[in-house]
Amino acid sequence: MNKFASRLPRSVAAWLLGALALVWVVPLLLTINATLKTEDEYKFTSVLAPPAELTFSNYIGSWIYMDFPSKVLNSVIVSGGALIVSMVMAFFISYAISIGKHKWRTFVLATCVVVFLMPQEAFAFPIFLVAKMVHMYGNIAFLILPLGFIGAAFATFLLGNIMGHFPMHVIEAAQIDGASRWQTIVNIVIPMMRPSLLTVALLLFVANWNDYLLTLLLLPDYENMTVPIAVASLNHGQFGGPATTALAAASILGAIPSLIVFALFQRSLIRGITLGSDD
Amino acid sequence: MALVTETTKDVRRTRRKSGYGGFLYPSFFILAAFIVTMLVWNIVLSFMKYPGFGRAKWIGLKNYADLFTWDIFWESVLHSLYYVIPMAIIPTVLGVFLAAAVYDAFRGRIGALFLPWVRAGLYLPQVIPIAISGTIWGWILSQDGLLNQLLKNLGANQLTVDWLNVPIPALASLTGIMIWLQLGFGFVIFLAGLARVDVSAIEAAQVDGANWWQRFINLTLPALRPEILVVTLITVVGGIKVFAPIAYITYGGPRGSTQAAASFGVDLFFGGGSIGMGSAVTTLLAVIIGVTVSVIAAVFVRRTPTERGQR
């Protein structure tokens, strides 16, 4: 065994890993295959067989039934709004603790880790009660603030660490030349941090888009739901009927925006989740 | 993810400057006030009898006392602890091995072509909203779903079962789905960590006759130490507080056989009409997670000084 293990044959390892990756995506591929068939064809043909002819009726049907564009719009408003709140807060906090070396640095970062690790369920109920009190229960605008605050903790943790590596001599040089704090922020820090800021913003957007708790608790009306919650609500039997290929089509449709973002920004996303671990 | 690699040294070396408080305090106070208020409010609720309307009544520790005598509460806690296995232990261990194997197998030209696809495939479940992948899995595992259909196609009719409506198959399904969800997270982080490893050290070890396992234990694992800490911490906590796969796939059923603490708390709050009880469950969950984080941090911190020399 040692002889074998001393040099894992590359082709074997490559095939095994390829097979594993395939196993990971096969459930989705077979689901997509099924959604391109009619309900009858799905019931009476093999799930491995390709559709006799491509049927997009499941997709067209669920697009209309779900009122898909309005759900995308809700998701964009919630994710984008919360993202702005998070980025503004996280940027100034990170600037103060990492470039300004504020003495609370460790305390602030530790607080952010705690917020990030805490179960959101432990502070979601009061948020729900606040929404009821201020008569904003079900309002997508209300959701932006709590989501934004939670995201701010996560973003501060990332940005605070990245900005810790900011080349200080650049800022000192600017200060010697008489630049004010705001001038340094606008002309030096933001332009130099741009790639990291965009990566963190992307991570926040995806996290907000994927949110499954506050969106579920605070948006009871179908009209105001985000894409993921709207898809899941179809399954709750809220609209009647058993699980069908139409439901599967609605789910795939709901996943498409995420898949597009992943396809476009795979590198940034993956760099994002490993941010700071390769300094 | 820079929990451990965070360089406080750099920070201390430079002299501290005053006058940055104006940038820090407004945002940080809003953030801290929000979190603290909500957490404390949740704790206060847990001492109340409050059906969601009318007046809340202070009943002290009664919610907790009631919970502790309630079998389904303990079952949900037990399930949450069990979910640490598919949410954290299996994905982390498997992720380290896979990343190490990939690193060995894909250095060179094939890797550049092939690796992004493997990585994308394994990471995909992390990108799709869980509410949506949960719905997809719910359909796949339903009575007329894809899996049963496939089993029938293969002539294995006796293996078909209503996966999500029978206790053991439901728990087994969730276990599989959780591994499917979580593997990519650790894998991608470990892979990035390995990019840092000194290739010449590995080649030297190879020349000296070290086999794959020896290299794995003596070079790869110590090199990945910071990543392993971060992934362990995040996924173990993620396992204990797991909510979404249950809330979107089995709804805790059948008959509570897959219920986790977090989803039980939410069910009590919304379905059970007992806001106080729900808050008590989530408060306890927060306490359990606080203790877990302290233990993991303490274990890793105690071991770090002896091993720092190797890096």
Topology, please?
The complex is a heterodimer of chains A (279) and B (311).
Chain A: H1 2-6, H2 10-35, H3 39-44, H4 57-66, H5 68-99, H6 105-117, H7 121-133, H8 140-163, H9 168-176, H10 181-210, H11 214-218, H12 227-235, H13 245-273
Helix pairs in contact in A: 2-13, 4-13, 5-8, 5-10, 6-8, 8-10, 9-10, 10-13, 12-13
Chain B: H1 8-13, H2 21-45, E1 48-49, E2 57-58, H3 62-68, H4 71-105, H5 109-127, H6 130-140, H7 146-153, H8 167-194, H9 199-207, H10 212-223, H11 225-240, H12 244-250, H13 261-270, H14 275-308
Antiparallel strand pairs in B: 1-2
Helix pairs in contact in B: 2-14, 4-8, 4-11, 5-8, 6-12, 8-11, 8-12, 11-14, 13-14
Kindly list the characteristics that best describe this protein.
heterodimer; A: 279 residues; mainly alpha; 13 helices; 76% helix; 0% strand; B: 311 residues; MetI-like fold; 2 domains; two-stranded antiparallel sheet; 14 helices; 2 strands; 1% strand; globular
Write up this protein:
The complex is a heterodimer of chains A (279) and B (311). Chain A is mainly α and 279 residues long. Chain A has helices at 2-6, 10-35, 39-44, 57-66, 68-99, 105-117, 121-133, 140-163, 168-176, 181-210, 214-218, 227-235, 245-273. Helices cover 76% and strands 0% of the residues of chain A. In chain A, helix 5 (68-99) crosses helix 10 (181-210) and helix 8 (140-163) crosses helix 10 (181-210). Chain A is globular, with a radius of gyration of 24 Å. With 311 residues, chain B is an all-alpha fold. In chain B, helix 4 runs antiparallel to helix 11 (225-240), helix 6 packs parallel to helix 12 (244-250) and helix 13 packs antiparallel against helix 14. Chain B starts with 7 loop residues before the first helix and ends with a helix. In chain B, 45% of the residues are buried. At the A-B interface, helix 1, helix 2, helix 5, helix 6 and helix 7 of A face helix 1, helix 2, helix 4, helix 5 and helix 6 of B.
Number of strands of chain B: 2
Class derived from helix and strand content of chain A: mainly alpha
Strand content of chain B: under 5%
CATH architecture of the largest domain in chain B: Orthogonal Bundle
CATH third-tier fold name of the largest domain in chain B: MetI-like fold
String of helices and strands of chain A: HHHHHHHHHHHHH
Contiguous runs where pLDDT drops below 50 for at least 5 residues of chain B? 1-16, 305-311
CATH superfamily of the largest domain in chain B: MetI-like
Greatest chain-chain contact: A-B, 110 and 114 residues
* CA-atom Rg of chain B in angstroms: 24 Å
Strand sequence of the main sheet of chain B, in spatial order?
Answer: 1-2
Beta percentage of chain A is: under 5%
What would you call the structural class of chain B? mainly alpha
Major sheet of chain B, described briefly?
2 strands, antiparallel
Secondary structure tally: strands of chain A: 0
User: What's the N-to-C terminus distance of chain A?
Assistant: 37 Å
How far the N terminus sits from the C terminus of chain B, by CA atoms, comes to 19 Å
Main pleated-sheet profile of chain A = none
> How are helices and strands ordered from N to C of chain B?
HHEEHHHHHHHHHHHH
